[in-house]
Amino acid sequence: MHTTGVTSQTGVWWKPAHKSEKIWFTIAFIWCMVLFAMMPFWHLKGGQNPSGIRAKVDPDAYRARVTQFIQDYQVGTDNGIPVVAPPAGSDIYLLGQMWQWIPVLQLEEGAEYTLHLSSVDVNHGFNLYPFNINFQVVPGYDYGLRITPTEAGDYRIVCNEFCGVGHHLMVGKVIVDGSATASASNTPGASLGGDR
Ligand code: CUA
């Protein structure tokens, strides 16, 4: 006789799943399928996905494009960051880097723009405060989002992806001018905590 330490059980040694266990398993499985189906459903019906304009871009080339964009449409500076007022309907550019958003964008209410986002170093997160708009800003990729500002105001771009010791200081700015009276309606829609 071999002594292996393993001896076979005799008879039915396991207990079949109890009825309640089967019910719960079925409920969990159905719920998994519902959640799974929601992903394509929201993609098609949710209207909240990015516009799908994306391309690979060399970080240096992106920086050069942003520099050109600033040269073309700069109207001032804000704490050393150029303020750019691009024409309605144009492609506009925002560059994320440790730990700044460049430039400050001055847009018109009701005008459509294609906002390009990219980073020249590490991942950053584009969060337009106080709206629920979040987007990953990834080095090497240019993401284009079709946007139309609907409310005049003075908004902040908060980096919501940890990107180093200055992460909490990485706050940018978007100014939206009211469509009716360009200069007179420059009242900020919301005072969001002073200068940067
Ligand atoms: Cu950029 Cu955090």
Describe the structure.
By secondary structure, this protein is α+β, with helices and mostly antiparallel strands. It has helices at residues 19-45, 59-73; strands at residues 53-56, 74-78, 81-84, 91-97, 100-102, 104-108, 113-119, 124-129, 133-137, 141-147, 153-159, 171-177. The chain has a seven-stranded mixed sheet with strand order 2-3-6-12-11-8-9. Strands 1-10-7-4-5 form a five-stranded mixed sheet, with helices on one face. The longest helix has 27 residues, at 19-45. The model is unreliable at 181-196 (pLDDT under 50).
Tell me the fraction of residues in β-strands, as a range. Answer: 25-35%
Oligomer: single chain
For the record, give the distance between the C-alpha atoms at the N and C termini, rounded to a whole number. Answer: 82 Å
Small molecules held by this entry:
dinuclear copper ion
Counted by DSSP, the helix tally is: 2
Which range best describes the helical content: under 10%, 10-25%, 25-40%, 40-55%, 55-70% or over 70%?
10-25%
Keywords, separated by commas or semicolons:
alpha+beta; about 200 residues; 2 helices; binds dinuclear copper ion; 5-stranded mixed beta sheet
Write a brief structural summary.
The chain is α+β, with helices and mostly antiparallel strands and 196 residues long.
Layout of helices and strands:
Blueprint: H1 19-45, E1 53-56, H2 59-73, E2 74-78, E3 81-84, E4 91-97, E5 100-102, E6 104-108, E7 113-119, E8 124-129, E9 133-137, E10 141-147, E11 153-159, E12 171-177
Parallel strand pairs: 3-6, 4-7, 6-12
Antiparallel strand pairs: 1-10, 2-3, 4-5, 7-10, 8-9, 8-11, 11-12
Bound molecules: dinuclear copper ion.
